[in-house]
Specification:
It is a single chain. The protein is an alpha/beta fold. The chain has two domains: 4-124, Translation factors (Elongation Factor Tu (Ef-tu), domain 3, Beta Barrel); 136-258, Nucleotide-binding domain of ferredoxin-NADP reductase (FNR) module (Rossmann fold, 3-Layer(aba) Sandwich), CATH 3.40.50. 22% of the residues lie in helices and 31% in strands. The protein has six helices and eleven strands. The strands form two sheets. The protein has a six-stranded antiparallel beta barrel. 34% of the residues are buried.
Amino acid sequence: MNPTGLLEVTAVRRPTPRTVRVTFTGAEGWEAWPDQQLKLLFPPPGRPVRLPAGDDDVMRWYQAFLAIPEDERPVMRSYTVRGRDRGTIDVDFVLHAGGTDGPATAWARTAAPGDVLGRYGPDAAYRRPVPKADAVLLAGDETALPAIATLLSEVDNAVVFVEVPDAAEEQPLPVHWLHRDGAAHGSRLLEAVRGASLGPGSAAWLAGEAGMVRALRRHLVAERGLDKGAIEFTGYWRRALTQDDAPTPEDLADAREKLGG
């Protein structure tokens, strides 16, 4: 599969008030796996997508991406494939309440059939292992739902907690729903995980807001005795920061831990 290419919108719908589900064509021949991530490239307003030259080497591809003039260079964001069907994929965009829309959210609010985005991946080199243990905890906020939905097809002994803004954001999935209803982001989730029945030999998969994921991981390791190697974790987004902002010391510590340093 060419690592870079174009995706065209064929359908847009709202499974919940704050979720935009976009169906793209252009995924023919893709290998499928759970929690499959890819980079979406959003063009500057009023411009077509400009792609760097295709290259199987990710670093050469990224250097070619950076060489595109800044006023023509797409904005790159990571997303998870929510579903697939005969050469199409679904991607869910979460519309966060309040604040200023980033380029991906702004695009999703007005997405329509015929719109085109670029993509890099999915790349099997970034495939995350499916947790294996007697009990597996899957925990995240609304941004983790696409990945959790695909993991549920592979994990049959999962304890699943998902925190969403309110009852209207629930989707038809076999999970324990937690409603923030104005509470601090992640507080309901941490409370639920604290009360969950998990033995020291359990495994965990965590995703969502970075600070929330960090708090969950610390609890599981320091208070529940889970081995660090049994926890897969990813901070999808950072409160008050974007992917373009510099990493914080906490972000760098997380990256070192994921690399085993």
